[in-house]
Amino acid sequence: MRIRYFGRSAFLIEDLLIDPYISGNRSCEIAPEDISCRIVCVTHSHPDHLGDAFEIAKRNDAVLVAIFEIAEKAEETGVRTEPMNIGGEISIGDWQIKMVEAVHSADMGSPTGFILKNRKAGRTFYHAGDTGLFAGMSLIGGEDIDIAMLPIGGRYTMGIDDALRAVHLIKPKMVIPMHYDAPTGLNIDPQEFKRKCMKPVEIFRFNEEKEI
Ligand code: NI
Ligand code: MN
Hints:
Layout: E1 2-5, E2 11-13, E3 16-18, E4 39-41, H1 47-50, H2 53-60, E5 63-67, H3 68-76, E6 81-84, E7 89-92, E8 95-101, E9 112-118, E10 123-127, H4 137-140, E11 147-151, H5 160-170, E12 174-178, H6 190-196, E13 209-211
Parallel strand pairs: 3-4, 4-5, 5-6, 10-11, 11-12
Antiparallel strand pairs: 1-2, 1-13, 2-3, 7-8, 8-9, 9-10
Helix pairs in contact: 5-6
Bound molecules: nickel (II) ion (NI) and manganese (II) ion.
């Protein structure tokens, strides 16, 4: 599948965009107008995740998937939405999207993560959003995760050591680290995470696209 990383926690997986923090993100040298997608998922309301989600959704006539309180705000601006809450699951196009918990803060609703199952490709992703390590990750480990996108930056989320413990609980076939770029005040080397991780780790450069 085609995966592109924009820095922070922003990914485009085929037609599904997650946490599109594009304008204002110094790691990311593209403009929101350069992105096309059919689905925009937002894990929580912090500006480095909500980012340009409303604008991108509107321009692409994409559907915005987020917790109820964020979806409500999006609808006020004329965005098509699929409101959800933790534990809920919906189906859009080739995707089965489940909202799961994240241990963090948020000013609209609760912080979340997503389990994203692409039925056509037979692939399951877990995007953790911003989170600390939590015991419920062992339940996510029962979801047969192929690729886990995990924050490793520390300070606002898990750092490298807790992310390594998270990998033990989630048991993904592969990990993509995120939320470590310098503008957060974090400046973490993803190579250190890769060296210590028991599972294969795929590190993306900013704006890089890979077929995985
Ligand atoms: Ni956050
Ligand atoms: Mn964040």
